[in-house]
Amino acid sequence: MMRCPAGQTFEPTRQHPDYYALQLGLQVLSGGFYASRLYQDLRERTGLVYSIDARLQSGKTRSVFTVSYDCDPGNVAKARALVERNLGDLQTKPVTSVELQQAKILLLRRIPLGESSIHGIAGGLLDRSMQDLPLDEPIIAAKRYAAFTASDVQAAFAKWLKLEDLAQVVLGPNPQ
Amino acid sequence: MKLDRLAFQEALDEIGAKAETGTNFSLQVLPERFERGVELLADNLLRPAFPETAFKALQQRTRQAVAGQLQSPVYLSQRAFLQAIYPEKDPTLRQATPETVGSLKLEDVHAYYERSFGLTSQLLSLLGRSRRIRRRPLLKNISVHGRPPDRSRRRISRRCRVTRLAPPLYRTGAGSG
Fold first, then answer.
1. In a domain, A175, yes or no
2. Is residue B167 pLDDT above 60, yes or no?
3. What is the pTM of this model?
4. Which residues pair with A56 in a beta bridge?
């Protein structure tokens, strides 16, 4: 089994307004496990990968976007091609209304869950202080998520994701 | 007080508290034991013992762990990925080696701690029945060294609680998709 992370740095920081549109697009790509585009395309439809995940780690100065998958050595390049096609689709076509609604639900439900424990509340307040975010940022985030349209998500990915800059490292036998 | 590891844990057990120390420190304690809990936590943070024997044991253990890590395929692939996405001299790319760990002296640890764990830059979030908690001991304890802390508190009102607003927002979001 090969571990294949591919990624690049993004200019938008955690404070950038596009962070929220990018998060919505990420949910369409790999949020909700089997319900996502990457899982359906690379595992369900083609059986190229065992698992796949897209992430955006955002900080005060920059972000890192990654897509990681586990596959057999013979599937590394084929899987990469499908990943690129899915990312390209996100940049050129609006997501469907069902996908957008599902992505919003995933992100909005996470907000009250994040406040369901003392540790969650205290940790959230500290995190927001350290990231220079308003203390009521989850409410601001919820309002933003609720208002976004499919074209907002498309515009954010078209603006920030550079497919030609996607670096990849492969862990395992020589890939094919 | 300068309690060692075991004495510190015993003192916490006496008041049924749970504490974590380091860059991210925390204290979980009943309101009536809050003052003693803060006293113990503050003492640990302000006057860490750093005994020579513990330093030597940890130095040796870290040196061996780093030597193993530098040959680990998982670590090497993660590092290659970071090298691919970050500029050449990015701070993220710094890495410890057995030599750099071995060259450290206990004074280096003290100096680094003084420099990096400055309590004037700490952020505290306090949750619980705060009306029953007197904050003065907390502020007194953390202002022992260096400048007194910024005592301003950022507040969010009860109305701003996310748990109350999220359900209606969720319905709005689902409908506007």
1. no
2. no
3. 0.81
4. A65
